[in-house]
Specification:
Protein name: Ankyrin repeat domain-containing protein 33B isoform X3
InterPro entries: Ankyrin_rpt, Ankyrin_rpt-contain_sf
Strand content: under 5%
Radius of gyration: 34 Å
Pfam families: Ank_2
Keywords: ANK repeat, Repeat
Helix content: 25-40%
Mean pLDDT: 78
Structural class: mainly alpha
CATH class of one domain: Mainly Alpha
CATH superfamily of one domain: Ankyrin repeat-containing domain
Length: 215
């Protein structure tokens, strides 16, 4: 029912419409509109709101894959292992595909620690030349000795930092268990000392963050 009331003292002429339904109490709960919640999630659906952590994560490729898993359709065929192929030769050629094929076939500790006439293993050779893909592949070999020293006492870490290969230095620090930061070469220098002597500031920073001793 609608009632018509006369104009009040502060109102002009005309009528005022009064609804017959009573107003809800002031403390009554307010019904939520589902559309309000949909608006809260709209920003997360935009392409520029996606987290970039997965794109920049400091993880070498392939480490999260399960060995023996089915090869997806369209994936490249496994690299065949030629006769006479060794880990040292593959590392020197930066052939990461051949290295992984050798790992799948199986390597003994003796094969993994083969060294050249200077006493450098495949890992040290890769660190010297800056072969990132080869270092990543060698991280999957359980027989690689990361603290192996060549004829001058240099380890893979010392070799990498004195050459200024910061990316490889970080991979060695993060993905090679048992890495000895304080191993000294034949001249008594640690990796941090060699990095400082050569002015490799990025390598110095990485070593200090890893806890390398200053003296």
């Amino acid at each position: 029912m609608v009632l018509l009331a006369a104009p009040g003292p502060s109102e002009g002429g005309g009528a005022r419409c009064l609804s017959s339904s009573a107003s809800p109490p002031w403390d009554a709960p307010v019904a939520e509109d589902p559309a309000d919640h949909e608006e809260d999630f709209e920003d997360f659906c935009r392409p520029d709101a996606r987290s970039v952590a997965a794109d920049d994560a400091f993880y070498p490729p392939g480490r999260g894959e399960q060995r023996g898993a089915a090869v997806p359709e369209g994936a490249p065929e496994p690299v065949p292992v030629p006769a006479g192929a060794t880990l040292l030769r593959a590392a020197g050629a930066n052939d990461a595909g051949l290295l992984r094929a050798l790992l799948r076939r199986g390597l003994s500790a003796e094969d993994a620690r083969e060294a050249d006439r200077h006493g450098r293993t495949g890992l040290i050779v890769a660190c010297y030349h800056g072969f990132v893909d080869t270092v990543l592949a060698l991280a999957e070999c359980p027989h690689v000795d990361v603290n192996w020293q060549d004829n001058e006492g240099n380890t893979a870490l010392i070799t990498a930092v004195q050459a200024g290969h910061a990316t490889i230095t970080n991979y060695l620090l993060n993905y090679f268990p048992g890495l000895d930061l304080e191993r000294r070469n034949a001249f008594g220098f640690t990796a941090l000392m060699k990095a400082a002597m050569q002015g490799r500031t990025d390598c110095v920073r990485a070593l200090m963050l890893a806890g390398a001793a200053l003296l």
